[in-house]
Design a protein that fits this description.
By secondary structure, the chain is an alpha/beta fold. The chain has 2 domains: 206 residues, 3-Layer(aba) Sandwich (Rossmann fold), CATH 3.40.50.170; 100 residues, Roll (Methionyl-tRNA Fmet Formyltransferase, Chain A, domain 2), CATH 3.10.25.10. The chain contains 7 helices and 18 strands. The strands form 4 sheets. The chain has a 7-stranded mixed beta sheet with strand order 5-2-1-6-7-9-10, sandwiched between helices. Strands 12, 13, 14, 15, 16, 17 and 18 form a 7-stranded antiparallel beta sheet that branches. Strands 3-4 form a two-stranded antiparallel sheet. Strand 12 and strand 13 form a beta hairpin. Helix 1 packs parallel to helix 5.
Length: 317
């Protein structure tokens, strides 16, 4: 058993999920959050030439102040040495990472070990946007992993995992909710074990490892030369809070937040919008989709409001 009165934890995160995990960590006996690192909503990162927007960002500043937790806001890339010096002042036993997008540099890990939550059942779906990729690939289950961070991308030994089932109508929002709940369970279960030094690490099976790339808003463009079931799933995988799946309409992006599958193409060609007297449908390679909710010119439109966008006319996307 550790001789210290508390497990000293530095928390690292910047999303709504981060807030939930921090809530859990603060509630655990013998755990003290001695510092935190968070980030701005838009940030620079190595895989993008332009600043990246965090669509699930949560501003933790007021929450951290309310709980008397000292914190630093990372406004530049991780090479910032001032953070390293702050870590040494805080003297953590471990770092807990949830809702973070930067690779953790090795010099940070000389202060104390880093443990993070990743939204997949590692070793599969390491890398970027694991839940979006799981939906796009029509997986029937996924999960969340608590693991030790090392030099590679999500390749460290595993502390524990929780599995979730992906329903046929799952959206990225509903799947995130399931994953967040399971993440809270993992932290409740394993954070006390760090205090008692009773964690058992399991090495990942590298032969089963697959790393997926990050995604950007431009990856949401719909190819109408695809089956209706694939396109509808593509829409569910990137709906709110993400930028959404889109097609171009009169030179501007038309975001489709929600659609339904039709087995019948209603004589529409691939990518052809038509009105069948009741619904606006778009033909696909196999079948068609009915538009339920969209966004155009920055405004959301429900099914009954689509006439204000399309004026009962046909259009070829």
């Amino acid at each position: 058993m550790m001789k210290k009165k508390y497990l000293r934890v530095v928390f690292v995160g910047c999303t709504s999920f981060s807030k939930k995990i921090l809530d859990v960590a603060l509630s655990i006996k013998n755990t003290q959050i001695v510092g935190a690192v968070t980030s701005t909503k838009t940030f620079d990162i190595s895989y993008s030439e332009k600043p990246v927007k965090n669509y699930k960002h949560y501003d933790l500043k007021n929450y951290l102040k309310k709980n008397d937790i000292p914190f630093e806001i990372m406004r530049s890339k991780v090479k910032n040495n001032s953070l390293l010096q702050k870590f040494k002042v805080w003297k953590p036993d471990i770092f807990l990472v949830a809702g973070w997008y930067y690779m953790i540099p090795s010099k940070w890990r000389t202060v104390a070990p880093f443990y993070g939550l990743h939204a997949s059942l590692l070793p599969n779906y390491a890398g970027g946007a694991p839940l979006v990729w799981a939906l796009l690939n029509n997986e029937h289950k996924t999960g969340i992993t608590l693991f030790k961070l090392q030099d590679g991308v999500d390749d460290g030994p595993i502390v524990g995992q929780e599995e979730v089932i992906i329903d046929n109508s799952e959206t990225i929002k509903t799947l995130y909710k399931k994953i967040e709940n399971k993440g809270e369970i993992l932290v409740k279960r394993y954070l006390p074990k760090f205090f008692y030094n009773s964690i058992e690490l399991i090495e990942q099976d590298k032969s089963k490892r697959k790393v997926y790339p990050q995604r950007s808003p431009k990856d949401g463009k719909i190819s109408w030369e695809n089956n209706s079931s694939n396109i509808e799933r593509f829409i569910r995988a990137q709906t709110k809070p993400y930028p959404g799946a889109y097609t171009m309409f009169k030179g501007k992006p038309l975001i489709i937040w929600k659609a339904e599958i039709n087995n019948n193409r209603y004589n529409s060609k691939c990518g052809q919008l038509s009105f069948n007297g009741e619904n606006y449908i778009i033909g696909c390679k196999l079948g068609s989709i009915t538009l339920i909710k969209i966004n155009y010119n920055g405004k959301d439109y429900t099914k009954c409001e689509l006439k204000f966008v399309f004026n009962f006319k046909s259009y070829n996307f």
